[in-house]
Amino acid sequence: MGLLLQPVTSDDDFKELIECEWTAYETPYNGFKEIYCPTLGTGPNAREESMKECRERQLAEHKGDATSHWFKAVDSDSGQIVGGAQWHVYQENPYVNGMEHIEATWWPEGEGRRFASMGMDQWFGPRGKRMNKPHVLLAICFVHPAHRRRGAGSLLLKWGMQKADELDLDTFIEAARPGIPLYSSHGFREVEEYWIDPKVENPSDEWKQLKEKIPPIPWMFMWRPKQGRYEEGKTVLP
Fold first, then answer.
1. Using one digit for the tens of pLDDT, what is the confidence trace for 1-13?
2. Engineering a disulfide at 83: which of 22, 25, 56, 152 sits with its beta carbon 3.0 to 4.6 angstroms away?
3. How many C-alpha atoms does 147 have within 13 Å on its Cβ side?
């Protein structure tokens, strides 16, 4: 029973792909999922309806961005999607004017949107400083918990690393802690740890509830230099 790496070429793939993404980010819990793809509401269909909104939004973002490349890891026997990755290939500097503010419009207006927007800026803000050059970025990577330790993660890394070497570009990852060992094994280096931790003065009760639901989220800025070449004391960190 092997795995295949395939590009995501149809809208139909996105339903199974995003279902896999949600399951992966719920096991173990990844707080960023609750900022970027929250489960809103409390009814019996809340998760399904929220997932549908997330799926449609991610598909629209992908279609509207020529730098976006989605790949799926597929079980060769069952045909099941067991993991996915979104790569971006920037052959020009995308942050000439810095990183723009991201408004979390998928949240209803109010404290939730304010909280999520601040979290998005804390996550993506360092891109304007760290990635202000042509580069390849692994924006999203996940593997279904039932199919981990089969090599899916390494398979999903393959395309982007090869593309970066082909174009002679640096490669970046904004890594959640569980993914750091995998990325390190493929030559990515830990550069700096950041936190998603929205704070305001005199927080409302709703803000405090959001802080309890979404505690501070650590993530590691990781980097693989051109062609994977790194010399201690000589290669300059981004």
1. 699 999 999 999 9
2. 152
3. 26
CA 80/CA 16 separation, integer angstroms: 8
Residues sharing a CB contact under 8 Å with residue 58, sequence separation 6 or more, in sequence order: 14, 18
Tens of pLDDT, residue by residue over 76-91, are 999 999 999 999 999 9
Name the one residue in this structure whose structure tokens are 């230099």: 225
**CA 66 to centroid of chain Cα atoms:** 17
State which H helix or E strand residue 196 sits in.
Answer: strand 189-196
Contacts of 187 (CB under 8 A, 6+ apart): 224, 228, 230
The one-character DSSP state at 30 is -
- Please give the structure tokens belonging to residue 42: 């409390």
Closest C-alpha to 222, from 136, 99, 159: 136
Whether the CB-CB separation of 117 and 104 falls below 8 Å is answered with yes
Please say whether the beta carbons of 45 and 34 come within 8 A: no
Cα separation, 114 vs 107, in Å, equals: 9
